[in-house]
Amino acid sequence: MKILIIEDEKLLADSLKVLLEAKGFTVDAVYDGETGAAYAELGIYDLLILDVMMPGMDGYQVARQVRTKRFGTPILMLTAKSDILDRVEGLNAGADYYLTKPFDTRELLACINALLRRQGEQVDTLCYGNTTLDLAAGTLSSGKERVRLSAREFDVMRLLMQTQDRNIPKEVLLARVWGYDSNAVENHVEVYVGFLRKKLRSIGSNLRIAAMRRLGYHLEVEGE
Question: How far is CA 34 from CA 57, 71, 164, 177, in A?
Fold first, then answer.
């Protein structure tokens, strides 16, 4: 599971990152609203942990922007504001839960697990064009044709299906699939994109993985 922390208090953000990584999550932390919104709109995260009080673009604005782009990623808001009107504003902006600082880490983890369970129950497949990615079985299908994906192929295809027609850079694919500390290079991404293109053709998919120079990859539905 991949979590994005958007929090301008760097010490708190980094502490949360360490805590959640120790629990087995993959975590990115950014320290301002503008960067957080850009990361969130990649569509590669299972949960956003979002501070409200940030300079420039605050948490309410980030949540509204993410929801305007029709991303359904669960949002957990963290804030020192405890007034009922602040909670209402956060929920109306698109937050799924509102946790007041200071908070107990046990409550934070319980909230995260509850939101992720809810998300997991709602999303078993990703669909685009005439093609479906089964998240449980690790298979790609179109009509009656089905093909099993390797672990790397599955991770790359999942990110592409989540971002659909929005470009996802090679460096993001490298980081999300191979990890920040990996020795993998951009050629690894190209190789697995090649594998996926062959498998999409083999099942009669109308999806095409398009490459944009310096921008990365996105999916296109042929005929549209």
Answer: 6, 16, 22, 24
Residue 104 has pLDDT above 80, yes or no: yes
Predicted confidence (pLDDT) per residue in 19-60, tens digit: 999 988 889 999 999 999 989 888 778 899 999 989 889 999
Q: What span, in angstroms and rounded, lies between the C-alpha atoms of 160 and 127?
A: 11
> What's the burial of 122, exposed, middle or buried (CB within 10 Å: 0-12/13-18/19+)?
exposed
The whole-chain average pLDDT of the chain stands at: 87
Cis peptide before 169 (omega within 30 of 0): no
